[in-house]
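Researcher: Next entry in the queue.
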Amino acid sequence: SLAAPLWRCAAGFEGWGMGDRVWSAGMNPALLLQLFLLLQHLEQTHHRAEGCRVRDKGYVDGGPGKDGIPSINNPDFNPVEIADLSDSSMVLGVYLNGTARAYPTYILRWHEIVNDQIGNEKIAITYSVLAGASSGFYTLDDQESFGTSGKLYENNLIMFDRGQDHEWVQMLGRRARKCDTLRRFPLMHTKWGTWKTLHPNTELLTTRTGYDRDYSVDPYPQYSSNNEIYFITSYRKDAKPYSLHGPKTTCFLLDSGSTRFIFQVDVISQAGSYSFKIHNTTSNGQYYSAEDVLATFMIPVQTNDEIHDYAVVVAYNEKKEVGAAWIVATNVSMNGTNWEANFALINGTTVLNYLSAVPSEPALSWGFNDYYKSGVFEVYSNVSSNFVKFSIDLANATENTTIPEKVPVRYTLYRLPMFRSYWFSATAIFPRANILVQDGAQFRFEAYDPEIIYQHPWRPW
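Model: Structure for this entry, 461 residues:
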């Protein structure tokens, strides 16, 4: 604490032992209080600035220098008809502006970054091999393109932009020393067979990268299948939350800025889908509004309707290795309908919502290939009188007003930029995240305070 020692000095304390009770005579109490409040303000400002810095001891030189692992800057693609890749091979799939592209991970293991452009959008496809993390970012004009810095944070890729030479931590999506953030877009880390089924007109990155590499060779042999962690990490195998799963099991992450969510694949696979709202941790646990959530993920609102309710929905199909997240926003409050608890993944391909009063009639549905969707569904008025209260203009109702059998609800669906990583890197970088856990037949979020762990000596795994 900055304030505590300065307060003690200002108050006239001379020591730090049991006898440090010497009060300086003549100190004006009002002036002392003003000084203390000023020091508190300075301390809070200091912590806000420090809050955007990565922990120094997790920030290391990874070996190769700047651009030692070269990014692909002029990517070449084949149409799906002549693509030569096994269906079980893993790819990073992108769908933007009506164009679908896939980037095989066996190529990205040699390069980690592909700088590309789809339509008018400059983008960066990033893959941190040591953290098992994949994420897509929009590239601003003043950033030009991204390269590998040769540095790591908690075994995660640190990029640099070639326009301003700033360093960016991939999983954090922000600068290593400042609060500036990158804007993510949805990136699907899945099997080639799954991706081309979802997007039959996709293109596939070729090995014509401009570099002389033997792409049949894995530069990190067996790394993904063993428990080795190469560089210094705060991950502790015997302490929660780290010990909940194996270090290199897969998980998905949603980063809403102030709140993070982790979905380990074994847990979300058991659930099939999970829906929730995001708490605003700065306002006594109140939920964020849908507009706040969209703004947090930097997603433009694409409806003229007022948004009165929402649910965040995450779904995962283990067999096809496909996961995604969406926000469903509605123009009326769904309070009383229990709709948030009635999302389900059906046949591993379709997310449905069954309202409790009409289980045989899904209110709305979508698939893993949906990124934006809008429409209308109807809710029976007898589902909840509370719902009717929010859905009908009671202020102008009379005794002759009839309540309709069904109430229309307009909705808008937005894909969220959920990304993937290893369990050890997710929990090391986001130790206070809300982690989905299974409790019998129920699922819930659980968070941990790992401060005591950080007091232990840092050491390589």
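Model: The longest helix spans residues 29-50.
Researcher: Noted, moving on.
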